Amino acid sequence: MTNTKAIKFNKMIYDKTNDELGLFEKYDDVLYEIQQRIFNYNASSIVDIGCGTCNLCGELSDSLDVIGIDNNLDMLCYSSNKFKNMKLKLGNFLDEPFKRNFADIVVSTYAFHILNTDEKKKALNNMLGYLKSNGRIIIADFMFYNNLEKEKCKSLFYERNRKDLVDFIESKHYTNLDEFTNYIKSLDLTFSIDHIINFTWILEITFK
């Protein structure tokens, strides 16, 4: 198997030619930051949802118990050849947890924006199902702080005659942090948010 989609994905991340929005700027820095958090929390078991080519947790699987979940078989085949210790499963955010109270940390990088608002809520509850008590969810993805910031961004692109970029943003489900963190609070969970660059944020949620 040639793993065509997996190879194209890895090339897209590092080829900045068509990345006018800087979506993957500081990609390696984001992965490194999350890896450091995993180490700092002394995590031994990880679930990575939307794991793709396992750039985040592949090497960690040499010393940690890591399950990678993705809905693309090509990605999983690529990862299984590259990371022999990685446990891989075909699935997605909306699948019910198949292994409850397993993980110290559930992670997801650059994948959460495929979900609409209602799906994000369901996904969060599924992620919680994987966690042990005092576990954490760490999501790195494209987000807006609130609707006002999104509208400001769109206005700027309109001023530059770049309706194409506005259309691109509107075609995605970039998380509205103000709205989503209100849902997190309604579940009596604590969280932190960190803006990395451009549209990239890290959202960390703690499960008591």
Keywords:
alpha/beta, 8-stranded mixed β-sheet, 7 helices, 38% helix, globular
Write the layout of secondary structure elements.
Layout: H1 4-14, H2 27-40, E1 45-49, E2 65-70, H3 73-82, E3 87-90, E4 103-109, H4 117-130, E5 131-144, H5 147-159, H6 163-170, E6 175-176, H7 177-186, E7 190-197, E8 200-206
Parallel strand pairs: 1-2, 1-4, 2-3, 4-5, 5-6
Antiparallel strand pairs: 5-8, 7-8
Briefly summarize what is shown.
This protein has helices at 4-14, 27-40, 73-82, 117-130, 147-159, 163-170, 177-186; strands at residues 45-49, 65-70, 87-90, 103-109, 131-144, 175-176, 190-197, 200-206. It is of the alpha/beta class and 208 residues long. Strand 7 and strand 8 form a beta hairpin.
